[in-house]
Design goal:
Belongs to the ketol-acid reductoisomerase family. The protein is α/β, with parallel strands linked by helices. Helix content is 58%, strand content 12%. α4 crosses α5, α10 runs parallel beside α11 and α10 runs antiparallel to α14. Bound molecules: NADPH dihydro-nicotinamide-adenine-dinucleotide phosphate and magnesium ion (2 copies).
Length: 333
């Protein structure tokens, strides 16, 4: 059974007695920096000269210095820049300023798990990862609530690294909702697998294949869009509230019967065998290596895939239909 921690299990004074640098001020960075400050923690934000985020952080009352200055001043350094550039920021601006007793924090385990960042032995290496987007993390904190977090320690140089991580999580509201203990390995591998096989990759491929099947059979794209994409949200909301059982309770018996007999014909043993291969390539570092090569090679294929899908009939149909849906927050991404 997973170990869970709440407000009473965490001592806020630990992080209040440290100096924290939040490197990056994007989705997660702004939420961490502002909520830590509001929890009485000494925070500075590290951003390079010319950063687009700098004005915003200053407007919100935070002190902004360069990443190197922030790392030099602080003894807890949270790295919240995009994963593919973390190793470079670490090498150039953080590593030269790390001292024994400092702590290096992450919001995702990617760079530690795959060895792109190697911290010196005298430094605690911790993760506090909210299980929700940064803007929700901040909003929930302001409303006196929190987003559940997962926390992990990769390297416990001080002997108190987990208590420090819990204290940090309390500072951003995480222990109000609950913190689950994990490891860098478990967090990174399950996160990558979930987004690839189920949440992003699996779901988009399922929606596209269903839409194409209907359109190729001569049905109207608008009808296919509603059936295969739009209604998915209604189904997922029910699953979120009460698992598969609540979803099946709410849909018709005909839909439920179709679910039982047809689902396994679409997601077959072969699909699951492929999922296992996907997981293996995550575990052995193949995915991470390929992604870093793609990223640092100029994102050529990434941009090709992006353009291909933005021109797909599913997307062009949806774009027009959503204009008619006043109830959908249809601001384009
Ligand atoms: P964002 O892309 O939202 O933010 C990036 C920030 O980093 C921006 O403020 C950007 O500044 C800044 N930045 C870019 N380059 C540098 C640099 N060289 N030095 C310092 N700052 C720089 O990142 P996320 O918040 O999405 O992700 C941060 C971490 O959190 C990642 O590890 C991610 O996996 C993890 N995470 C993210 C979640 C999310 O909700 N998005 C959820 C859970 C974990 P500028 O404005 O100048 O570009
Ligand atoms: Mg992820
Ligand atoms: Mg229907």
């Amino acid at each position: 059974m997973a170990e869970l921690f709440y407000d009473d299990d965490a001592d806020l004074s630990i992080i209040q007695n440290r100096k924290v640098a939040v490197i990056g001020y994007g989705s997660q960075g702004h939420a961490h920096a502002l909520s830590l400050r509001d929890s009485g923690v000494d925070v500075r934000v590290g951003l390079p000269e010319g950063s687009k985020s700098k004005a915003k952080a200053e407007e919100q009352g935070l002190r902004v210095v360069t990443p190197a200055e922030a790392a030099a001043e602080a003894d807890v350094i949270m790295i919240l820049v995009p994963d593919p550039i973390q190793a470079k920021v670490y090498e150039e601006s953080i590593a030269p300023h790390l001292k024994d007793g400092d702590a290096l924090f992450f919001g995702h385990g990617f760079n530690i798990r795959f060895g792109f960042i190697k911290a010196p032995a005298g430094v605690d290496v911790c993760m506090v990862a909210p299980k929700g987007p940064g803007h929700l993390v901040r909003r929930q904190y302001e409303e006196g609530r929190g987003v559940p977090c997962i926390a992990a320690v990769e390297q416990d140089a001080s002997g108190n690294a987990f208590a420090l991580a819990l204290s940090y999580a309390k500072g951003i509201g995480g222990t109000r909702a609950g913190v689950i203990k994990t490891t860098f390995t478990e967090e990174t591998e399950t996160d990558l697998f979930g987004e690839q096989a189920v949440l992003c990759g699996g779901a988009s491929a399922l929606v596209k294949a269903g839409f194409e099947t209907l359109v190729e059979a001569g049905y109207q794209p608008e009808i296919a869009y509603f059936e295969c994409l739009h209604e998915l949200k209604l189904i997922v909301d029910l699953m979120y509230e009460g698992g598969l059982e609540k979803m099946r309770w709410s849909v018709s018996e005909t839909a439920e019967w179709g679910d039982y007999v047809t689902g396994p014909r679409v997601i077959t043993d072969q699909t699951k065998a492929e999922m296992k291969k996907v997981l293996t390539e995550i575990q052995d570092g193949t995915f991470a290596k390929n992604w870093m090569d793609e990223y640092h090679g100029g994102l050529k294929k990434y941009n090709e895939y992006k353009t291909q899908d933005s021109e797909h009939l599913l997307e062009t149909t949806g774009k027009e239909l959503r204009k008619l849906m006043s109830w959908v927050d249809n601001e384009e991404a």
